[in-house]
Amino acid sequence: MREDELISILTTKKARSALESLAAIPQADRRPHAKAVSKLYSDHVLFGFEQRGDNGTKPRDRDAVIIGLFATATLSELKKLGFVPVPASVPIQDVFRVLELDFAQGLVDYLVEQNPHAIANAAPLWQAGLAKRPESDGIILGYYGIWHERWGADEEVLLSRDVWRFFEVEGGGEFSLANHDKFAKQGTPTWSDRLIGYAEAGLLDRQRLLDASIDALERDFGQYRAGWYSRFHTALAPTTEEIDARAGRYLGLLSSSVPPTVSFALKFVKAADASSPLDAGTLLASLEPALQARSKGSVLAALKLVERAAARDERFRSAALEATALALVSEDAGVQTAALDLVGKLGGGDEAHVQALLADYVDLVVPSLRSRIADMAGSPAQPGADAAPVPCAPAQTAAIAPVRIPAEALSLYLSVLETPRDPFDVERAIDGISRFGTELRGSETLLSPLKKRAKQIWAKPGGVGVRAVLALTGRGLCEGRPIASLTGDEGGRESASLVEDTWLQSLHVDRNSEMLDRVLSGVSVPLLSLPGDSSGMISAADLSQRLQHYSAAGVSPGVADLTLALLRLDKQTPVPIKNHDLNCEPGRAFAYALGQDVEVGPTPNLWAAAWCARRPVLEDKRVAGLFGKSFPECGVQAEMALDVVRKDSKCGAYFWVDVAVPIAPAIEGEGGGWRSIMPRREVKTPYTLRHCGRSFADVAWASLVRPNAPDLFFRQGLLDQDVWQKLSDNHTRAYLEPFFRPGPGISPLGAGVLAYYMAVEDKSVTSLAVEAAVETLLDGRLATRDFAEAVKAFLLSGALPTARWTKGFAAMAGTGAAGHVREAIGLILDFLPGQCPRDIGGMLELYYELHVDAGTVPERPETLACLASLPGGGKTAKFSRKLLGLAREAA
After folding, report:
1. How far apart are the C-alpha atoms of 596 and 576, rounded to whole Å?
2. Model's pTM, two decimal places?
3. Which CA distances in Å does 430 have to 411, 433, 437, 474, 691?
4. What's the CA gap between 83 and 791, in Å, rounded?
5. Residue 602, preceding bond cis, omega within 30 degrees?
6. Contact assessment for residue 638 and residue 632, using Cβ atoms and an 8 Å cutoff
């Protein structure tokens, strides 16, 4: 059969008719046309009949094309599609029977393991006897992801066998009991309700369900997923007899690594002990892990059980004392106070034992309890920390050494091609090709590994970042072709997304393209834009020397390369203009960057970069006019300010933080829906305003584009952050890179990045932000007032939990920045009563402890007035009174 005849069957017939026609064609005649059918599916079915160019006639029935896939493809070819489709109008079992396909079992196994949602497609094959049902975890995940009725699960199999595996298979992502029940639609019974209903109807053994839920908790599943099993157990409402029968198992759960499981177990241990007192020795031994838990409620509950055990059996009073002391490792002052109270109550008449017991804990308690514990331990209280902040020297710049030999250049390039996370290494690698590319091109054998790897990476779909740019540049070097001739060629990639005008990687492509053109013409010179040191900047003297080298070699500087070099120019190191040709645009642009008045134009980006390098930065209408419209930082200085507000849903049930950084002049096309600097495609944007990227490597490279004035970079860091997102490799961490490099002082916008990133959900981001804040405060680049104002902007919005900054401040205080934290909190405490953030009590407690530790008191009038006016009770009222009391005592 010819290809066009088979394609005609699939495009002109309905699904059932096409199946009958295909069944009449021998498999050997259908098989050669698998590639053509796969292309027909990709062009007209995969994207819903989307016509893309001249791709032939649209099929009459999409199911006919899907049946054509099964008729022509092998199982391995179907797997390559990612998601294996099945026809909706013809049962899949009919397709296998009529076409006499022999891979039903393989397809069933693959679909079940690939995606539990696909079980609905696989189930008809084993229900029709064409395959056996897999007994893998994928089947159980199918219950978690969809109601089993949707794929016709056997109720008897569920109740006799599958349901008990619910307590063995944890799941993950969207496939878990916790996730299913949390997001079940209103009116839809949850799995918890359903299993309880089965038990009440006598279809499931209640005692086995109680034991199985404890079994699951003993497996230490992830906290979110483990929570379902503790809630389910509680929902079963165990009777006193059932609780007593499982007392030993509840005690065992006290050593769980999952905090909510410990809290759950404590409630049942308390109930068991109340109805039938537990052996005091066993109880005290089991409580040790709970007494060292992070949860305040768990530790306090454990202390009450310790007190109860000691009260009923005097023989265990000493063991109870030792157990109580364990609670002093808690970071919570309330827990420490309760533990010391109990030690005092239990330790009467045994002063020597108490002193020996508490000696190791004197330095661990909060400052306000140190005198008390020191008295109890019979040792002098240790003096508090020095009130003055401990400064540290600013980070020293380290020279960036260019590669010296061709082999080193190739080795470095291969390294960054695999892992381009270090932007300095990326720049050194490009510079190495610029210096030694002509020599490397003389050895095809030497370039063979790069040629192979670069082509593999370039062929991968979806890559639009720095790694794709490096792969493209590597291909051009090895194949002897300009970059312009490589984009969108046989590699299966379209170039539009790679060189999109709104992406900063377009500057990378433009610079590398210029470099490669030089190398292919036989010219090897250093890059103009290679950073000179670890600040990411280039001294004016170095750039002057490089330009003179180009002039001596008769090489014209690349516009993109010089643009990037000027954006990296160190404004603090001007040099006299000499030996530069002011009759050419590059020479004039460099002279202009150093402050000379020259003729401007005609290349907009080059002159915008030169304008950015000038000191002082003054408006220049000549540069602004080159763009035809007004852009910030292009002849006109940008004005930016942080704006943080809380946004509420229409129903009032949800709220979120909305971070904006209005900029003037406004960027045409920058819509509120974009959480980044991304104008519409038709707006020709300067390099300085382009999007940083979506991977760590992309953002890290972007951080080196303008290291001497990073506010536009910080602006995007504020707009690009998703406060609730947790990622395995969160790209927004790269927005913190400039804080760890030598460079200019941190602006208020940079302080805003630190404040915001301290309060996001992703702990990998918050811990790095805390580290960055400490480093920049101690080396003097970040002003405490700017940092405090930035935190205050977020805090008063009421959109994020106050406890996140409290935790961050505590971490900062513990790493040498206690004085700065104390000052920052004092500056934050300057707002009206109606603006008081929720849960500020924890921050006030930290503020109080820092003052006690340093022997200082709040003195700022605005801070004292704020403390005196704070509304509410609880911890907020308690510590505002204590802080005001410190001030009164000092007065």
Report:
1. 10
2. 0.78
3. 12, 5, 10, 10, 21
4. 46
5. yes
6. yes
